[in-house]
Amino acid sequence: MGKPMKNITTDFEQIILLITEARNRVYSKANAELVMLYFNVGQIVSEKVANGKWGDGTVNDLVNYIADKQPFLKGFNRRGLYRMKQFYEVYSDKEIVSTLMTQFQDADNELNKFVTTVLTQIPWSSHLHILNKTKTIEEKLFYIHNSIKEKLSVRELERQLNSATFERTMLGSKFNLAMTKQLPKGIFKDPYVFEFLALPEIHSENDLQQALIKNLQNFILEMGKGFTYMGSEYRLQVGNKDYYTDLLFYHRDLQCMVLFELKIEEFQPEFLGKLNFYLEALDRDVKRPHENPSIGVLLCKGKDVEVVEYALARNLSPALIADYETKLIDKKLLVEKLHQLSEIFYKNEE
């Protein structure tokens, strides 16, 4: 008598898992070798050009030489070689290496270790997107760190770059730091961008809620890794009445519940009272002893910074008042807004 079909299927799945894990290791090793190759080639080209030994003509000759010796090799055209040169020059700066190695909690600042332990952790195509779409080294370090920490695919990284995640995260961090000391740094954004919802400019709160639920995967990608969906219209019973929250999540790293309340109008101070009421109910009746206090996020269609500052001045619960947009925001406007906010808070600290 043979094995039950269920047991056989389990055995088959185990073999599939082994195949998948081996393939991933092979891909990871191949990618690491490729990134190292491009970095080393970039170093040679950079140093030869910097010393005046090579010019554009020599680089063209190199392209032709490689094509002759390795006719099936891709990526070693003129544009590719200059990308490798740029790759080396950007990430060989000692200050940058020191900053990134500290960021990844490694005391060894040697260039070779930096390349092998950091740069090789993401694919070359991700590096190309970062080189093409960022200007400052702070942006580059942010997206490299995000790619490694959140295990971003190339498509997910591209969306973060296109939706100016760096500027929005920095903007949210600066604003939150000034408004409240209770929110963790770098987790939440302001504003959030929901271009994937295809909502009209005029929509109801229910329209927004249902669209986010239908596009839950994209919503979680916009929020960042670590969020687990707990449900919509989450019921809270206080006294003899039932209350229903909008969208409730759990964040694994923060070890707390995160409540998103949706408003299709500009922030009003009274919104905060209701949010605090929900957070108190969650902490008293739903939160487990080992978990941290719940965090509330009010997603509003705009806000007056001064009104928010007054509203949060005596607020005891960890809360964020964030804008949401249904279309991609012009990155220049976000950069300008970040610069203006930095100036305001810098003056306040003087």
Automatic annotation (TrEMBL):
Which Pfam families does the entry link to? DUF1016_N, YhcG_C
Domain YhcG N-terminal: residue ranges: 16-168
Q: What is this protein called?
A: PDDEXK nuclease domain-containing protein
Q: Which residues form the YhcG PDDEXK nuclease domain?
A: 187-336
